[in-house]
Amino acid sequence: MDYLGALMERTAGTYTISQMRWSTTDEHVVLVTRNHARMDKRQLEWDEVIVFRFVAGKKKRIDLFSGAPDAVADFF
């Protein structure tokens, strides 16, 4: 949630997700998103995959993979 809050703050509230796809197993939840943001006069669209790993019903790890890591880094 901190990550999403930071995106909203940095983009002055323009960050949105237009698509979300979920997949689950006993130990993992995978979220695939299509993201959009505007900042100054620039716009960016990118895909992300977020993998949540659970052990004994508790969140143990979150990994985030961007489909455009260089473009996201340059944008932000």
Which terms summarize this structure?
76 residues; alpha+beta
Structure notes:
By secondary structure, the chain is of the alpha+beta class. It contains 2 helices and 4 strands. It has helices at 2-10, 69-75, and strands at residues 16-24, 28-39, 42-55, 58-66. Strands 1-2-3-4 form a 4-stranded antiparallel beta sheet. The protein is elongated, with a radius of gyration of 14 Å. The model has no long low-confidence stretch (mean pLDDT 94).
DSSP summary: helix tally: 2
Coarse shape: elongated
DSSP strand tally: 4
Q: Helicity, in percent?
A: 10-25%
Main beta-sheet strand count, sense and barrel state = 4 strands, antiparallel
Distance between the termini: 18 Å
Gyration radius, in Å: 14 Å
Report the uncertain regions: none
**In what range is the share of β-strand residues?**
over 45%
Write the layout of secondary structure elements.
Layout: H1 2-10, E1 16-24, E2 28-39, E3 42-55, E4 58-66, H2 69-75
Antiparallel strand pairs: 1-2, 2-3, 3-4
